[in-house]
Amino acid sequence: MTHIDGPAQVRARLEETGYLVDEGLAVACFLALRLHRPLFCEGDAGVGKTALASALAEALDAPLIRLQCHEGIDASQALYDWDFPRQLLHLRAAEAAGVTDADRLEGELYDRRFLIARPLLHALETHPSVLLVDEIDRADDEFEAFLLELLSEFSVTIPELGTLRAERPPVVVLTSNRTREVHDALKRRCLYHWFDHPGFARELAIVRRRLPEVSARLAEQVTALVQALRGEDLIKPPGVAETIDWAQALDALGATEVDAELAVATLGSVLKYREDAERARGLDLAAVLAVRGA
Question: Can you give the pTM of this predicted structure?
Answer without folding.
Answer: 0.87
